[in-house]
Amino acid sequence: MTRASRSVASPASAAVASALLDWYARHARRLPWRNHPDPYAVWVSEIMLQQTRVETVIPYFERWMQRFPKVQDLATASSEDVLRAWEGLGYYRRALNLHRAARMLVEEHGGRLPTTAGELMSLPGIGRYTGAAIAALAFGQDEVALDGNLRRVLARWTDLTLDPRAPEAERKLLKAARSLMPKGRAAEFNQALMDLGASVCGPRAPACAVCPMASGCLAYRRGTQDQRPVRRERPRIPHRLVAAAVLRRHGRVLIGRRPEGKLLGGLWEFPGGKREARESLEDCLRRELKEELGIQVTVGERLGIFQHAYSHFRVTVHAFACTLRGGEPKALEHSQIRWVYPGRLTAYPMGKVDRLIARAIQRQAVAPLDEMAGKSARSRARPAAQGRGHRPRIARGRRRQA
Predict the structure, then answer these.
(1) Are 389 and 336 in contact (CB under 8 A)?
(2) Bridge pairing between strands 239-249 and 314-326
(3) Strand 296-309 vs strand 268-269: parallel, antiparallel, or unpaired?
């Protein structure tokens, strides 16, 4: 007996599901991965959508599918190309897992995705939710893809008094969803709930008056829709103070590639690290460069301050110009290091903060050239201006002589 067949829909539930699917037929969002003929596209979109908003994902998805249109294209790409295509989307381990999984599919499965949630979960980066989502959306399996939108809609539908992410609450929500889902229509049903949560049953002030599920919604009936879902108290997000070095040599700057398996693994960065207690930023940078590269440096002027928020901490990065004072840089904590001309930094995939530093360096590199070009143009224009000024005076003198 399948999981979906264990719950038999009541006539009332069937009527609500029918109303929901009718609403979806009229109001479905047009998203580039929906109704795509290749399950690979659904897989890519689901990985990109993890903890990322739909409107952010759309341009990345479209560029990705142009760059890697088939799973075989992704499997044969370098990790550097993959990270470059992902840059700016965040949570970079997703991209590396997608790449690893593509290689596994090509080597072990003939380039085809498994069709069941359980088999899909054997691939890197695919957990319970993503496995269920791909199985339902790409292969029509009767699975519930319990994302944030579904949790919110179903928590109101059942007037759930628990945190919807708690294990007991999740079991209740899955049971409620399965009792509503029409057999064989899992793709439409899941997408309908996703779109309902994104447009009608939002986090604040749900539009219950136009909701197709209002007739059976317990929270709406009891007037508790604004208190559902139960919101857990968020922990305070720590803040880290970081120093980064812009180390120059013969017109190039030094960058290092972070080891895979760590935060921002595989991406390139400017060397440096987190300030320790009672340590100045300059002392922090001297210590970090000795540990990371085995060098001694002189810390110069501050080049900029850059801020960014990750999912579990915030960071403020102070970038400093540095001069090599002793030793030759070695990749002690990076997988690679490289001296790069500023104009070539765009070829190296970076996290958000390091990309901001790189752009600041590139602007500084361009500014002197612009200034030199301006001086050259002014020096060329000066004799011409003098010539134009002298000729009228000569002409006037001739008229007076005449």
Answers:
(1) no
(2) parallel
(3) unpaired
- 173: which 2 tokens? 């929500």
Q: Summarize pLDDT for 8-62 with one digit per residue, the tens.
A: 456 778 999 999 999 999 999 999 999 899 999 999 999 999 999 999 999 999 9
Half-sphere exposure for 98 (CA within 13 Å, toward CB): 31
- The CA distance from 132 to 138, in Å, is 10
Q: What is the 3-state secondary structure (H, E, C) of 79-121?
A: HHHHHHHHCCCCCCHHHHHHHHHHHHHHHHCCCCCCCCHHHHC
Neighbours of 98 (CB within 10 A): 23
pLDDT tens column, 263-272: 899 999 999 9
The fold for domain 239-363 equals Nucleoside Triphosphate Pyrophosphohydrolase (3.90.79)
Please say whether the beta carbons of 316 and 347 come within 8 A.
no
Taking alpha carbons only, the member of 108, 82, 101 closest to residue 39 is 101
CATH 3.90.79.10 placement within the chain:
239-363
Peptide bond just before 229 cis, omega within 30 deg: yes
Is 46 an annotated catalytic residue? yes
Q: Specify whether the CB–CB gap between 322 and 270 falls below 8 A.
A: no
Apex 148 CA angle, 232 and 184, nearest 5 = 140
In whole angstroms, what is the distance from residue 348 CA to residue 252 CA? 14
Residues 6+ apart with CB under 8 A from 239: 313, 314, 315, 316
Q: What's this model's pTM, rounded to 2 decimal places?
A: 0.85
Token pair listed for 187: 């793709």
- Bridge partners of 337, per DSSP, are 256
**Radius of gyration over every alpha carbon of the chain, rounded to an integer in angstroms:** 29
| Alpha-carbon gap, residue 358 to 116, rounded angstroms | 44
Between the CA of residue 252 and those of 205, 336, 338, what are the distances in Å?
54, 16, 9
- Whether 395 shows a pLDDT value over 50: the answer reads no
Q: In this predicted structure, what is the pLDDT of residue 387?
A: 42
Please give the class, per CATH, of domain 4-149+175-201.
Answer: mainly alpha
